[in-house]
């Protein structure tokens, strides 16, 4: 009986202690909840979405808000956005605000396409990206710096992923020489989601081979290894947003073995002969012109003047006669002299 009473007493103690512990936990729980509510105003934190989707050519907004341990901060600050990786990735945007100013002066905007939408004084670093391209896809990280204490700066660790979508676009299609006098065709297209490529042509039995993109996840390449027939070969790229096509033509010279080499040699010799004939003809024409020019040259006026001077010297003084008589006399002497010669 005494053992039973002791057991009941112990159970009562355990129940009372349990209720005491629970009460303490409730009290401490209320305090912890209060700290949790007040924590954002007393520590650094950043809130960014996991992913933002937009189409190529449009604009996208990357949201970013933060909290800091200061109740009120009115000193100079700097807002920064990076791409690729946190802390060490290249900066795509940076602006600074003077003490007491809510205007953040832009110091860096890559290609002029990044613009701050938020107000850092109000804990908002949201960024707008204009004229999106597929190359803009990736992760972006926001950062804020307060001048002064080295610990007064914070940067998002995981960042926000920007996913740019686009319909397919064929960026290159070509025919290249292959082994054993064969030819192969290459087609490269880009898009997001990455497009599926297919070849069609005069030889439907040919199958294309998918190749890895040249350093871009949104580019794909397909190869047609052997073009067995002449004609038109078409590459088609398609994804959930659309499709694109491009074609290339193949025409080969068909002839007997060695014919092409002989034709090239004969063509080269004929061209040299034509050049030689042209040079000889030009020289002959120039010589003819050189012989014809002296014969066609009219007599110089100086020779005529010298004849008249000789006549005036050989003739005796002539009295002053009318103009008509003088002209007749001069012409008479001139004829006589010419006759003697």
From TrEMBL:
Keywords (A to Z) from UniProt = Membrane, Signal, Transmembrane, Transmembrane helix
Gene3D superfamilies referenced in this protein's UniProt entry, alphabetically: Immunoglobulins
- TM ranges are 262-282
Entry keyword annotation includes Transmembrane helix: yes
Region of interest (Disordered), ranges: 290-316
Give GO BP annotations, semicolon-separated.
Answer: regulation of actin cytoskeleton organization; regulation of bone resorption; regulation of osteoclast development
Q: Which InterPro entries match?
A: Ig-like_dom, Ig-like_dom_sf, Ig-like_fold, Ig_sub, Ig_V-set, SIG15
Ranges of Polar residues composition bias in the record: 298-315
Protein name as catalogued: Sialic acid-binding Ig-like lectin 15
């Amino acid at each position: 009986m005494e053992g039973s009473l002791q057991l009941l007493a112990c159970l009562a103690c355990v129940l009372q202690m349990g209720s005491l512990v629970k009460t303490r936990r409730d009290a401490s729980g209320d305090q912890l909840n209060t700290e949790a509510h007040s924590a954002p105003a007393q520590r650094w934190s950043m809130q960014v979405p996991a992913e933002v989707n937009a189409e190529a050519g449009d604009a996208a907004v990357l949201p970013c808000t933060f909290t800091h341990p200061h109740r009120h901060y009115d000193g100079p600050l700097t807002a920064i956005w990076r791409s690729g990786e946190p802390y060490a990735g290249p900066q795509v945007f940076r602006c600074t605000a003077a003490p007491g100013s809510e205007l953040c002066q832009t110091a860096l905007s890559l290609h002029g396409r990044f613009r701050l939408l938020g107000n850092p004084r109000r804990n908002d670093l949201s960024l707008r990206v204009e004229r999106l391209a597929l190359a803009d896809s990736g992760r972006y990280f926001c950062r804020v710096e307060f001048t002064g204490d080295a610990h007064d700066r914070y940067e998002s660790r995981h960042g926000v992923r920007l996913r740019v979508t686009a319909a397919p676009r064929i960026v290159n299609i070509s025919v290249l020489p292959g082994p054993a006098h064969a030819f192969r065709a290459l087609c490269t297209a880009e898009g997001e989601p990455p497009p599926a490529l297919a070849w069609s042509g005069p030889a439907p039995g040919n199958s294309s081979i998918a190749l890895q993109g040249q350093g871009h996840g949104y580019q794909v390449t397909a190869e047609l290894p052997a073009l067995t027939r002449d004609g038109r070969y078409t590459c088609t790229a398609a994804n959930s947003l659309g499709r694109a096509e491009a074609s290339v033509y193949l025409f080969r010279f068909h002839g007997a073995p060695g014919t092409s080499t002989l034709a090239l040699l004969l063509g080269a010799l004929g061209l040299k002969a034509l050049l030689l004939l042209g040079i000889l003809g030009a020289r002959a024409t120039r010589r003819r012109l050189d012989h014809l020019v002296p014969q066609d040259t009219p007599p110089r006026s100086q020779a005529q003047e010298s004849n008249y001077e000789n006549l005036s010297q050989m003739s005796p003084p002539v009295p002053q006669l009318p103009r008509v008589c003088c002209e007749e006399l001069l012409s008479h002497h001139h004829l006589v002299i010419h006759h003697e010669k």
